């Protein structure tokens, strides 16, 4: 379990003063071995104005409505390690700000993001103790207050050198 509590102060450029906004979160994490080669990991979170802690899809304060943005979300993943050479991961995540705290905009670059969803799978292969190869395939979707959702597939390859 973890969390935070704070206040964010915003100073306005036109010298009309400043406003204080609450910031808090509550988080629950799980790490559960399901056998010698299978692991379940997960996290659930809820909070208000915690974009600086990576919640709310990067949205913490709605300056149009002059209020904090509440959000809930979480992620879960299974890790299978059948040998010292291979590791496989499969998981999903979502981040869902409260739609009532968001303002829409027909300009797609300024429209509020109402939900992020992410599904992924990856495979890692260790060439030796220092070098690991990885490939990941992921599907991502973002919905918006006014505009049509954006979604797509992402694939990536990485080589990790540990020193």
Describe the structure.
The chain has 163 residues and is mainly β. The protein has one domain. The chain has strands spanning 2-11, 18-33, 38-48, 61-62, 67-68, 70-80, 86-97, 113-126, 131-144, 150-161. Strands 1-2-3-6-7-8-9-10 form an 8-stranded antiparallel sheet, with no helix packed on it. The model has no long low-confidence stretch (mean pLDDT 93).
Question: Topology of this protein?
Answer:
Blueprint lengths: L1 E10 L6 E16 L4 E11 L12 E2 L4 E2 L1 E11 L5 E12 L15 E14 L4 E14 L5 E12 L2
Antiparallel strand pairs: 1-2, 2-3, 3-6, 4-5, 6-7, 7-8, 8-9, 9-10
Task: Briefly summarize what is shown.
0% of the residues lie in helices and 64% in strands. By secondary structure, the protein is mainly β.
Number of strands: 10
Q: What does the radius of gyration come to?
A: 20 Å
Spatial order of strands in the largest sheet: 1-2-3-6-7-8-9-10
Strand content: over 45%
List its traits:
10 strands, two-stranded antiparallel sheet, about 160 residues, 8-stranded antiparallel sheet, single chain, mainly beta
């Amino acid at each position: 379990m973890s969390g935070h509590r704070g206040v964010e102060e915003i100073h306005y450029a036109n010298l009309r003063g400043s406003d204080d906004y609450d910031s808090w979160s509550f988080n629950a994490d799980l790490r559960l071995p399901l056998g010698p080669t299978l692991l379940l990991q997960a996290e659930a979170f809820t909070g208000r104005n915690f974009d600086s802690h990576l919640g709310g899809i990067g949205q913490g304060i709605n300056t149009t409505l002059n209020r904090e943005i509440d959000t809930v979300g979480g992620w879960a993943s299974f890790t299978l390690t059948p040998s010292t050479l291979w590791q496989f991961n499969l998981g999903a995540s979502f981040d869902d700000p409260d739609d009532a705290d968001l303002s829409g905009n027909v300009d797609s670059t300024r429209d509020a993001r109402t939900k992020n969803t992410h599904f992924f799978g990856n495979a890692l292969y260790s060439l030796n103790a220092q070098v690991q190869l990885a490939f990941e395939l992921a599907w991502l979707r973002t919905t918006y207050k006014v505009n049509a959702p954006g979604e797509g597939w992402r694939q990536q390859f990485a080589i990790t050198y540990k020193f």
